[in-house]
Every structure is written in C-alpha cells, then in structure tokens.
Amino acid sequence: MKDRQNIHGSWANRWIFILAATGSAVGLGNIWKFPYIAGENGGGAFVLVYLLFILAVGVPIMMAEVLVGRRGRQSPINSMREVAIEANHSPKWALVGWMGALAGFLIFSFYSVVAGWVLAYIAGMGNGDFIGMDGDAAGKAFNDLLADPQALLIWHSVFVVLVMTVVMGGVNKGLERATRIMMPALFVLLLVLLGYSMTTGAFGQGFDFLFHFDPSELSWDAVLVALGHSFFTLSLGMGAIMAYGSYMPKKASIGSTVLTIAALDTVVALIAGLAIFPIVFANGMDPGAGPGLMFISLPVAFGQMPGGHIFGFLFFVLVGLAAWSSAISLMEPAVAWMVERFGLGRMPVCIGLGIVVWLLGIAALSSFNFGSEVALFGMNIFDFLDFITANVMLPLGGLFVACFAGWILNKRITKDELAITNPTLYLAWSVAIRYIAPIAVAAIFVLNLIEKLG
Ligand code: PFF
User: Residue 157: CB partners within 8 Å, gap ≥ 6?
Assistant: First the structure.
C-alpha cells in the first residue's frame, strides 16, 4: 500500500483536522442561510428533510472526499487523478476536481459580499447604530448599504485580504493557526448567544417553529433547497473537504471523524436557529423575511433589548469568524493546485487568485446597485451564483465523488483507507455511497426539472 506525503504539510493531530473541517463547514450557511431558508420553507418539515440528507447523503460523501484526499495527498484535482490512476481508471476524473475549484471561486464571490455585510454590521453594532431602531429604519439601513457599491466594495475587499492572508500562511502557519484561535472563540460566542436568547427571547415559539413537523408545508422546491443546503453547509462537492482530508494524519479514523464534523455542523445550525427565531418572535417579526432576516430583524431585536447592542456586536463577530474560516477552505483547493502545478510559492498564488475572486465579487455585489438590471435565467448575478453553485454544481460534484468512490475505486482501496473494522458499518457506507446518495441526488434533479418544465 502506498502512503504518499503531502508537500503542503499536515494537521498536527486528528482534532485539528476535525476543527479545521468544522471551521470550513460552519459558516454563513449555518448562521445566515439555514435560518432564512428554513423560515422561507415553513420550518419543521424542511428541517427534518435537511437532517435526513445530512445523514444519508452528506456523511457518506464527506467520508468519500476525505478518503480520496488522504489517499491522493494532493490538491483535489491531482488527488482525483492519482487515485483514479491507482484504480486503473481514466485520469479524466480530475475534471471533477476542476469543476470543484470553479465552484469554489463562484461561491467565494457571493460569500465574500455577504461576509462584507457582516463586517459592516460588526462596525455598526460596535458603534451603537442600531440602538432603539425600528423595523423600517433597520430595513432602510440595510438597503442603503446594498445600494452603496463603494461601501460594499470596501468591505468585500477587506474580507478577501483577510482570507488570503491566512491561506498564504500555508497549512500549519496559516490554516491550522487560524483554526486554533477561531474555533474555540466561535463555540464560546455561540453558547453565550444561546444563553441570551433562552433568557430573553420567545424560546418556546422559536423551538416550535424549527421542530414542528407539518408535511403539507413541503414542496419539491424545498426538497431541492434542502439537498443543496446539505452540500453547501458541509462544504461538499467542491473539494474543500478533500483538500483538508489530504492533510489528515494516516492513523485517524475517517468514519468517526466525519460523524463528529457533521454533528458539530448540524448542532451549530440548529443553535443558530434557536438563537435567532426566539428573538425574531419575541419582537413580532416575520420568520420568512428571507436573506434580510439576519441583517434587518436581528439588529432591530438586539437594538431594543437591554444590553442588546453588545450581544449584537458579539453575534456579528461570531458570524464573521465563521465566514472567515469557511472562505479559507473555498480557496485552498485552487491554491494547492497552483502550487503543485507551477511550483510557485503561496504568496504569488494567493495574490493572483485573490485578484480573480475580488473581481468576481464585484460582479456579485453589483446585483444590488449598478448591475441590478443584469439577469441570468431570471435571476440577478448574486442569486444566480448562489443557485448554480448550491443547487447544481455542489450536488453534481457530490454525485460524481459518490460514483467515483462507490463504483470506480475497488474495495481494496476504500477498505484500506476507511479502515472500518465492523463489516456492517462498511456495508452501510457502501450502500449509501453506491445507491442512496447517487439515486437521491439524481432523482431530486430529475423531479425538479419535470416540475419546472411541467
Ligand atoms: N460550508 C460553508 C457554510 O456553510 O457557510 C460554505 C462553504 C464552504 C461551502 C466551503 C463550500 C465550501 F467548499
């Protein structure tokens, strides 16, 4: 059995890998997107479908990504190629890595814009701007920000620089160091905020909204959104987890590690929902307010509670940290590939790719102001980027990885890498990766298409 070395380095231990991958998984997807899409899609029933996808589709595919990454010990593009060759198959499987790297850029471009809003709100909350504000004023403040391309550009630029500075440091001095500082801070902040919401918000109502199961609320569209979100939130289908897996120590067990990451990600999303909805309900606001939920409803709520602006400030710091640690992983696959391919240092690569994502981000932020007329398939650029990545490219990337691990790699490789000693557990993974995950993704795609055409 081959054991390759990774030229980029490796995580100090299993826990660092878990925290780094959790840092990638926990991000705007958990704190901004999950509550608002749950709100838009009726709450409980959507949440249940999402949880099922995490378990039956997300976890097995995450195991497959880590497996391929650790086997290949290179960037996702090169790992896919190496491992395919090892299994006597076409090196063209590297294309899956290419699509992932492209998805990473596209996600980064709108992710950075939203992260920029978060930075603006950290400043605003710190300034006490929202104290005593009502809903209309907060709505206007948010819309004013969106209508101001200069402000958006500044915050977006700051975020790109923050992310690129960490990626430039490399696996140990950049990614790992950031993980060691950011993740404990993130957990502490989350618990503080949960405590705050439990004592000041309408906790029961928020809880009921998230967990009350009413199947009549569920549409096919919601199922596609839940599927897409399960990929987005676990950072699957684009190589981020594969890249992080390539830095994972050989001894660590993939199954238990991945379960821990998925569980932490899910817990954070649910806690974020439990921190947000009670506050929204306590202030008589609309849970289905959409993307503005976090930027309009919450600041109003925070602004009206005693000491709320301090907690509001902490809340946006939390979201900023989460976004930062995720965005790092959006860039790592492409950066690692450039370093491998051209033998360049991380610094020039990060500067070059930083400029590319910075430009793409400008296209995304223009959707709210000077580019608002541009429409792609009936969506503005920002919505289109979100849709095409989360609902199309990530599930497709996941589908390919599942087929690759389930049907192309032989048992010798998967068994060796997963090292699951319990035969029933290995069988469960095999069934999930060969049948459940590919069939679920393909079926939901087709059904959605039929519904859209019908
Ligand atoms: N998982 C991140 C979130 O939930 O915010 C977003 C993300 C990061 C998606 C990295 C994909 C990725 F590769």
Answer: 358
Closest-CA residue, ligand 1 atom 13, reads: 235
Closest C-alpha to ligand 1, atom 10: 235
Rounded Cα distance between 184 and 142, Å, is 30
User: 269 CA to middle of ligand 1, Å?
Assistant: 13
378 Cα: distance to centroid of ligand 1 (angstroms): 25
Identify the residue whose tokens are 């087929």.
403
Cα–Cα distance for residue pair 61/395, rounded to 1 Å? 10
Q: Would residue 183 count as lying in a domain?
A: yes
Q: How far is the C-alpha of 391 from the C-alpha of 247, rounded, in Å?
A: 28
pTM: 0.94
Is the residue at 1 inside a domain? no
What is the Å distance from ligand 1's center to 138 Cα?
28
Tell which residue, 240, 232, 248, 230, has the closest CA to residue 329: 240
pLDDT digits (tens, 9 = 90+) for 303-360: 887 888 898 999 999 999 999 999 999 999 999 999 999 999 999 999 999 999 999 9
State the residue for tokens 């990638």. 24
- 155-209 pLDDT per residue, tens: 999 999 999 999 999 999 999 999 999 999 998 988 888 888 788 768 888 888 8
Alpha-carbon span 191 to 224, nearest angstrom? 31
The token pair that represents 273 in the structure block? 């929902």
* Number of domains the chain is built from: 1
* Inside any domain, residue 377: yes
CA-based nearest residue to 405, from 242, 293, 248: 242
Which protein residues are within 6 Å of ligand 1, measured from CB?
A: 24-25, 27-30, 104, 107, 232-233, 235, 238, 240, 326, 329-330
Rounded to 5°, angle at Cα 296 from 290 and 302: 130
Asked, for residue 264, whether it belongs to a domain, the answer is yes
Neighbour-count burial for 42-56, b at 16+ CB within 10 Å, e otherwise: bbbbbbebbbebbbe
CA of 3 to the centre of ligand 1 (A): 29
Cα 199 to ligand 1 centroid, rounded to whole Å: 31
Question: Ligand 1, residues 107, 118, 230, 391: which to mutate, most atoms within 8 A of Cβ?
Answer: 107
Domain with 403 in it: what CATH number?
Answer: 1.10.4160
From 232, 266, 388, the mutation candidate for ligand 1 (largest count of ligand atoms within 8 A of CB) is: 232
What's the 431 CA to ligand 1 centre distance in angstroms?
Answer: 26
Are 295 and 76 a contacting pair, CB within 8 Å?
A: no
Q: What are phi and psi of 379, to 5 degrees?
A: -120, 155
